[in-house]
Design goal:
The chain is of the alpha+beta class. It is about 30% helix and about 25% strand. The protein has 5 helices and 9 strands. Strands 1, 2, 3, 4, 5, 8 and 9 form a 7-stranded antiparallel beta sheet that branches. The protein has a two-stranded antiparallel ribbon with strand order 6-7. About 30% of the residues are buried.
């Protein structure tokens, strides 16, 4: 009974977040952070990034992410001229935990490869605003506030180079696959 209730809550929350991701502010968020070209240049940032990559390398196996409770939150997100974020896969246990931990991203970003297999390209750290008193920081970066989702968010392109910067919301090197009929 508990598993069914958890599954229903996960489906409902996933649907809500997917709609929120689509309906609100991706373009406005991208415009607000268009000049976000920060890179991970300090010793502390590089050490934290190394720890994050070490902890998330296992998610290159897409099934591992699914087995650990990550569920799809959005279709492939992209904006012409900015690039793509990819498919967002979130873990609600992590999202609802206000603790910030580079080794425990709340959202994983995937893009399908030419073979159709999902490829891990980035990480997103998300903290619902009601759970904290101020914007969290990680990698020496302050999370961006999303009023549309009432959350603090930080993208990290840990697994795919991003010409716009490791912390930019969109990666101009990525594009979503064409819809199939």
């Amino acid at each position: 009974m508990k598993n069914q209730t958890n599954k229903k809550l996960t489906i409902i929350f996933s649907s809500f977040l997917a709609v929120a991701f689509l309906a609100f502010g991706f373009v406005r968020a991208a415009e607000a952070h268009e000049g976000d070209d920060a890179n991970c240049e300090t010793k502390e940032c590089r050490a934290t990034l190394t720890a994050a990559k070490r902890a998330t390398a296992k998610y290159h196996n897409f099934q591992t992410a699914l087995d650990e409770g990550f569920v799809r939150l959005s279709p492939c997100v992209s904006v012409p001229g900015l690039g793509a974020m990819g498919f967002h896969y979130g873990n609600f246990g992590r999202i609802m935990n206000p603790n910030v931990d580079a080794a425990q991203p709340e959202v994983l970003l995937y893009i399908p490869g030419e073979d159709g297999e999902m490829r891990l390209v980035g990480l997103e750290y998300v903290v619902p605003a009601p759970l904290v008193s101020s914007a969290p920081t990680l990698f020496g970066q302050t999370y961006h506030f999303s009023p549309e989702r009432n959350s603090y968010e930080l993208h990290v392109w840990a697994w795919r180079n991003n010409p716009s910067g490791i912390f930019a919301p969109f990666n101009s090197k990525l594009e979503c696959p064409a819809p199939t009929n």
